[in-house]
Automatic annotation (TrEMBL), chain A:
Domain of life according to the entry: Eukaryota
InterPro entries registered for this protein in UniProt: Ntn_hydrolases_N, Proteasome_bsu_CS, Proteasome_sua/b, Proteasome_suB-type
Main location per the UniProt record: cytoplasm
Protein name in UniProt: Proteasome subunit beta
Cellular compartment(s): Cytoplasm; Nucleus
UniProtKB/TrEMBL annotation, chain B:
Biased composition range(s): Polar residues: 1-36
Family stated for the protein in its record: Belongs to the peptidase T1B family.
Chain intervals for the UniProt region annotation (Disordered): 1-49
Keyword Nucleus appears in the UniProt entry: yes
GO BP annotations listed: proteolysis involved in protein catabolic process
Family annotation (InterPro entries): Ntn_hydrolases_N, Proteasome_beta4, Proteasome_bsu_CS, Proteasome_sua/b, Proteasome_suB-type
GO cellular component: cytoplasm; nucleus; proteasome core complex, beta-subunit complex
Listed transmembrane segments: none
Localization (cell): Cytoplasm; Nucleus
Taxonomic classification: Eukaryota, Fungi, Dikarya, Basidiomycota, Agaricomycotina
Protein name in UniProt: Proteasome subunit beta
SUPFAM superfamilies for this protein: N-terminal nucleophile aminohydrolases (Ntn hydrolases) (SSF56235)
Organism: Kwoniella bestiolae CBS 10118
Assigned keywords, A-Z: Cytoplasm, Nucleus, Proteasome
Record's function text: Non-catalytic component of the proteasome.
Length: 272, 280
């Protein structure tokens, strides 16, 4: 009878007896960084254009920021294949919505849809950090940030990706005024109120600094600026408003056009 | 399970019968009350490469694209098949250069050739536009991503080179088993990404500049760079072979060279001390 009982030793040997399993890893990390900052009547969404894997630069130009509607821009960061396919799906859902409702989906609805789509793959997640920026229905600039499985919140600013840990503290200080005190007797700080010119230079400084200190950030930068309807563009298009080396183009409206305008600013970053 | 034997047909098989009525292996483990043709247990997938090809290089030049790959299919460290073509033309203006698992490559060839035959048939009767390099690349990207999402990857890294007849410009892009995609004027897979890509970029940027707005390499220059790269890879990549082909894709179509070898130099080895057997 004792023959049929497991020997204690046999149990101890089990791990060594099992074959070493090589499991296919369906994920990769393609580096890069993204960030978005909301203003009162505009939103800025930016990302670098380097795509890398380990120490290899795969390409110096791969898109991470995507115009979704006339008032929504989405930035994706993490595993590039998931990112591209996620954006493709989001765009498809937006098209279906427009066919069904004869109007483009509003920003807060896009945000909730993205959370549903991400959570829908909770047990085989899109390995992607998303930041959605744009103009809310009330005309205010907005930024929504997501984790890979769909937790999201509306914020004044957010950085994500390889250089998140370098950029976010800088934004906390400059946008949320963390560790700053107003001068005695002056107005208290209100986050999300900065002028566009200031926000743009913060974005540029964030990426040039991240490029200096993070190997996965560099090559180029794409900054999308979404402006609320009837907002002046003098602080963007005026003579000498952009820094040297910046190129700007206006992206035409995607739908009927309700007065929101989207601009794309490109700037080179260091390639080393 | 129902008995299939002519004498007892229609009767239930004994509860614990392990007799395999169809001589399939392994025995299907059916639970009573469940549909007998449902899938049983986890699906087993291929999942490591067996016979593999090493680096593929790609380079845009003035008037087209060049893609290079050697003729070796390795079985682990064994140089198993030494006359394998890893460049595969698809239609008039597209070519794949494939690294990774060679049986997955053969399957891919079969699938894509079937698709192209179907397209050719449609084009006979209709003003059916032929698949552009971009179309084929999009299809491959979706296929690779779908398969990785099923945890059953197509174990390859592929360079797609082509000539876009409409835009009148060259096309060069990469896709791999994870569904990762990207495009650049110079591309390399595997070891080539470490050893050849820097040389390719240096040569490309020397003329075109970092923004790519300058003149591109001429056909002769491009060929020279690729030959240098294939030589460097042969020197340092233990899974490579000094027998390779270069394909050129232009508006004229696809041209795949005969197999060739780089001139190698080994004299320096005689002066080395400290490795191998020496009397002094």
């Amino acid at each position: 009878m004792a023959l049929y009982h497991n020997q204690p030793m046999a149990h101890a040997q089990e791990p060594t007896a099992a074959p070493i399993e090589h499991r296919f890893n369906p994920y990769s990390d393609n580096g890069g960084s993204i960030l978005a900052i909301a203003g009162t009547d505009f939103s800025v969404i930016a990302g670098d254009t380097r795509q890398s894997e380990g120490y290899n630069i795969q390409t110096r130009y791969a898109r991470k920021v995507w115009q979704l509607t006339d008032k929504a821009v989405l930035a994706t960061n993490g595993f590039a294949a998931d990112g591209n396919n996620f954006v493709k799906r989001v765009k498809q859902r937006l098209e279906w919505y427009e066919h069904a409702h004869h109007k483009p989906m509003g920003l807060k609805s896009i945000a909730r849809m993205i959370q549903t789509m991400l959570y829908g793959k909770r047990f085989f997640p899109y390995y992607v950090y998303n930041i959605l920026g744009g103009i809310e229905e009330d005309g205010s600039g907005a930024v929504y940030s997501f984790d890979p499985v769909g937790s999201y919140e509306r914020e004044a600013c957010r950085a994500a990706g390889a250089a998140q840990s370098l950029i976010q503290p800088f934004l906390d200080n400059q946008i949320y005024f963390k560790n700053q005190q107003p001068e005695p007797g002056s107005q208290p700080f209100i986050p999300g109120n900065l002028p566009l010119a200031t926000v743009l230079s913060l974005v540029v400084d964030s990426f040039t600094s991240a490029t200096e200190r993070h190997i996965e950030v560099g090559d180029g930068m794409e900054i999308y600026i979404v402006m609320a309807r009837d907002r002046t563009t003098d602080d963007l298009l005026g003579e000498g408003k952009l820094q040297k080396g910046m190129e700007i183009e206006e992206l035409g409206t995607l739908g009927e056009g309700q007065g929101e305008r989207t601009f794309l600013v490109r700037q080179a970053l260091k390639r080393d | 399970m129902m008995s299939q034997h002519p004498a007892t047909w229609g009767q239930p098989t004994p509860a614990n019968s392990s007799f395999n009525q169809f001589n399939t292996f392994p025995l299907p483990q059916t639970q009573r009350g469940q549909s007998s043709h449902a899938h049983h247990g986890p699906v087993g997938h291929t999942q490591q490469p067996l016979v593999t090809g090493t680096s593929v290089l790609g380079l845009k030049y003035d008037g087209g694209v060049m893609i290079a790959a050697d003729n070796l299919a390795s079985y682990g460290s064994l140089a198993r098949f030494r006359d394998i073509q890893r460049l595969h033309p698809l239609g008039q203006h597209t070519l794949l250069g494939v690294a990774g698992d060679m049986s997955d490559f053969q399957w891919l060839k079969k699938e894509l050739d079937a698709l192209l035959r179907e397209e050719d048939a449609l084009a006979l009767t209709d003003s059916h536009p032929s698949l552009s390099p971009k179309n084929i690349y999009e299809l491959l990207s979706n296929l690779f991503y779908a398969r990785r999402s099923k945890m059953n990857p197509v174990w390859n890294a592929v360079l797609v080179g082509g000539w876009d007849k409409v835009k009148k410009e060259s096309f060069l892009a990469y896709v791999d088993l994870l569904g990762t995609t990207y495009t650049a004027p110079t591309l390399a897979t595997g070891f080539g990404a470490h050893l050849a890509q820097p040389l390719l970029r240096e040569a490309y940027e020397a003329k075109a500049g970092i923004d790519g707005n300058g003149p591109l390499l001429t056909k002769e220059e491009a060929e020279k760079v690729l030959e240098d790269c294939m030589k460097v890879l042969f020197y340092r990549d233990a899974r490579s072979l000094n027998k390779y082909q270069i394909a050129t894709i232009t508006s004229e179509g696809v041209d795949i060279s005969d197999s060739k070898s780089a001139d190698t130099y080994w004299k320096f080895a005689e002066g080395l001390r400290g490795y191998g057997a020496q009397t002094q």
